[in-house]
Amino acid sequence: MINFLPGINATTAALNAERIRMDVIAQNIANAETTHGIDGKPYERQQVVFETILNEAQQPQSVRVASIEKDPRPPQGVYYPGHPDADKNGMVMMPNVNVHEEMADLITSSRTFEANLAVIKNARAMALQTLSIGRTG
Amino acid sequence: MSPVTSIHGVINPDGQISLYPNFTRKTAEQQPISAAELKQLTPSAPEVTPADGSFANVLGRLVQDVSTKQSVANEAVSGLLSGQNVSLHQAMIATQEASLSFQLMVEVRNKLLDSYQELMRMQI
Question: Do A5 and B93 touch (CB under 8 A)?
Answer without folding.
Answer: yes
